[in-house]
């Protein structure tokens, strides 16, 4: 089962990249996408690496930003000087940024752009409040969630224009923990302010963990309530969990829920 990187994963990637690259000049720059094949950033200093929702912004002196998005299975890996690269075969490498001590290698990156730092809004300006960002605004996130009251909760929390950072795992876990069906209209959610509040709490709790935990139990087989557990018993009531795709045609995403703890609106 492939788990799409979510806001906590991207935050952690940005933290590691910043620690390895920031403040030092690049000794190597190799961007392996056609539109950037002739770009050479060697000699420029990386000023900082920051996350924005599921986006990574590597800011480089001279007013440039290398923008990447991990989507389904992209990843940045950090290696010490002389360390063997283990992130995947060479043909999956899309970017290499190195300084005197570390090398950052981007594998399977579906999005890689170089733009002016002053123009970052063209790639992240549409995003809602960032759950792990310094500008987090719970009231604004709630306002955006409620702006389309007929939309299902599952689709609304996954929409990065409402709040940035929630993916498939947290979508399912949030709904289960709040005992609401992912197919419930946003307008029917009791105390809807709980949605952004719990999302914030979960991502904050997991941003420094390699293994995502929502049950408070770190054991590998019990870390999550429902995600990836279709057909297995609900941890609360024992009812077999269910899964189904949710979303508009072409944008469907898997959703997991307990039909007893989270009855559907038409049940």
TrEMBL record:
It comes from the Bacteria. InterPro entries: DNA_glyclase_Znf_dom_DNA_BS (IPR015887), FPG_cat (IPR012319), FPG_N (IPR035937), H2TH_FPG (IPR015886), Nei2_N (IPR044090), Ribosomal_uS13-like_H2TH (IPR010979), Znf_DNA_glyclase/AP_lyase (IPR000214). Residues 5-133 form the Formamidopyrimidine-DNA glycosylase catalytic domain. The keyword DNA repair applies. Residues 225-263 form the FPG-type domain. It catalyses: 2'-deoxyribonucleotide-(2'-deoxyribose 5'-phosphate)-2'-deoxyribonucleotide-DNA = a 3'-end 2'-deoxyribonucleotide-(2,3-dehydro-2,3-deoxyribose 5'-phosphate)-DNA + a 5'-end 5'-phospho-2'-deoxyribonucleoside-DNA + H(+). It is an enzyme of class 4 (lyase). Keywords: DNA damage, DNA repair, DNA-binding, Glycosidase, Hydrolase, Lyase, Metal-binding, Multifunctional enzyme, Zinc, Zinc-finger. The keyword Cell membrane does not apply. Belongs to the FPG family. This is DNA-(apurinic or apyrimidinic site) lyase. It comes from Streptomyces stramineus.
């Amino acid at each position: 089962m492939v788990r799409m990187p979510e806001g906590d994963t991207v935050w952690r990637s940005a933290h590691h990249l910043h620690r390895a690259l920031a403040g030092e000049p690049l000794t190597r720059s190799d961007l392996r996408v056609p539109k950037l094949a002739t770009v050479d950033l060697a000699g420029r200093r990386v000023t900082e690496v920051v996350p924005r929702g599921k986006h990574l912004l590597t800011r480089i002196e001279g007013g440039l930003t290398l923008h990447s998005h991990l989507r389904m299975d992209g990843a940045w890996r950090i290696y010490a000087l002389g360390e063997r690269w283990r992130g995947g075969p060479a043909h999956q490498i899309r970017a290499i940024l190195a300084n005197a001590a570390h090398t950052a290698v981007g594998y399977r990156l579906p999005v890689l752009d170089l733009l002016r730092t002053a123009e970052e809004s063209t790639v992240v300006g549409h995003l809602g409040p960032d759950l792990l960002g310094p500008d987090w605004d719970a009231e604004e996130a709630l306002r955006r969630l409620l702006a389309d009251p007929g939309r299902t909760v599952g689709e609304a929390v996954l929409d990065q224009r409402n709040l940035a950072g929630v993916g498939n795992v947290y979508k399912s876990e949030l709904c289960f923990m709040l005992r609401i069906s992912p197919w419930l209209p946003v307008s029917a959610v009791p105390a809807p302010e709980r949605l952004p509040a719990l999302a914030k709490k979960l991502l904050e709790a997991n941003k420094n963990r390699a293994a995502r935990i929502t049950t408070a139990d770190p054991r590998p087989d019990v870390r999550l309530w429902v995600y990836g557990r279709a057909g297995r018993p609900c941890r609360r009531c024992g009812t077999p969990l269910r899964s189904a795709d949710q979303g508009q045609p072409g944008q469907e995403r898997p959703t997991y829920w307990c039909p007893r703890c989270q009855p559907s609106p038409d049940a």
